[in-house]
Amino acid sequence: MAKKSKQMRAALEKVDSTKAYSVEEAVALIKETNFAKFDATVEVAYNLNIDVKKADQQIRGAMVLPNGTGKTARVVVFARGAKAEEAKAAGADVVGEEDLAQRIQGGWLDFDVVIATPDMMAVVGRLGHVLGPRNLMPNPKTGTVTTDLAKAVEESKGGKVTYRADRSGNVQAIIGKVSFDNDKLVENFKAFNDVIVKAKPSTAKGTYITNLSITSTQGVGIKVDANSL
């Protein structure tokens, strides 16, 4: 087992691993235990009591955080003609068709979000083996397959986060940066939690949120009391 750094040990001493903190306490601890020398990203992680093998218990979607993520996403768009011009006007970083697909096939992956119009999905579909494993494949459920490119680009640039439950029922999402005011991190956390709660499948039985935690890049994980949200 790797030896913990002095900074990590000091951070761990400030956290009671047996306690589930309120959202306000957890956010304050994230700041207190952060030792990264850069503006660390803050993430939340859920474990949900769902069976993703069942079609009606798969959870996936997107939402725009009220205070953004603290990061400006690099957005590429597959579109042609007037829609391509719409995407460029909205601030897309790269817009293209077959040329863009070939560039990605060649190994270029310097982007965070991929958006496409429905008519371009035949081209994008051939990139499934590249985009799929990186969770970058456009999907109508996340608003990244759309004809309203202006809205999709602006939301992606303005703090949109996507989420998807993995095979174990885990969902992770960015809710901001350590530099955010506590109130803004709490507001983002609560807004994302509302989305997760509303996404509960009607067929899911028992306790829905079985574990919830918050962490920062290189930081410690802090358990959160879901009821405090």
TrEMBL record:
<dbReference type="GO" id="GO:0015934">
    <property type="term" value="C:large ribosomal subunit"/>
</dbReference>
<dbReference type="GO" id="GO:0003735">
    <property type="term" value="F:structural constituent of ribosome"/>
</dbReference>
<comment type="function">
    <text>Protein L1 is also a translational repressor protein, it controls the translation of the L11 operon by binding to its mRNA.</text>
</comment>
<dbReference type="Pfam" id="PF00687">
    <property type="entry name" value="Ribosomal_L1"/>
</dbReference>
<comment type="similarity">
    <text>Belongs to the universal ribosomal protein uL1 family.</text>
</comment>
<protein>
    <recommendedName>
        <fullName>Large ribosomal subunit protein uL1</fullName>
    </recommendedName>
</protein>
<dbReference type="InterPro" id="IPR023673">
    <property type="entry name" value="Ribosomal_uL1_CS"/>
</dbReference>
<dbReference type="GO" id="GO:0000049">
    <property type="term" value="F:tRNA binding"/>
</dbReference>
<keyword id="KW-0687">Ribonucleoprotein</keyword>
<keyword id="KW-0694">RNA-binding</keyword>
<dbReference type="InterPro" id="IPR002143">
    <property type="entry name" value="Ribosomal_uL1"/>
</dbReference>
<keyword id="KW-0689">Ribosomal protein</keyword>
<comment type="subunit">
    <text>Part of the 50S ribosomal subunit.</text>
</comment>
<dbReference type="GO" id="GO:0019843">
    <property type="term" value="F:rRNA binding"/>
</dbReference>
<dbReference type="GO" id="GO:0006417">
    <property type="term" value="P:regulation of translation"/>
</dbReference>
<keyword id="KW-0678">Repressor</keyword>
<comment type="function">
    <text>Binds directly to 23S rRNA. The L1 stalk is quite mobile in the ribosome, and is involved in E site tRNA release.</text>
</comment>
<keyword id="KW-0820">tRNA-binding</keyword>
<dbReference type="InterPro" id="IPR016095">
    <property type="entry name" value="Ribosomal_uL1_3-a/b-sand"/>
</dbReference>
<dbReference type="InterPro" id="IPR028364">
    <property type="entry name" value="Ribosomal_uL1/biogenesis"/>
</dbReference>
<dbReference type="GO" id="GO:0006412">
    <property type="term" value="P:translation"/>
</dbReference>
<dbReference type="InterPro" id="IPR023674">
    <property type="entry name" value="Ribosomal_uL1-like"/>
</dbReference>
<keyword id="KW-0810">Translation regulation</keyword>
<keyword id="KW-0699">rRNA-binding</keyword>
<dbReference type="InterPro" id="IPR005878">
    <property type="entry name" value="Ribosom_uL1_bac-type"/>
</dbReference>
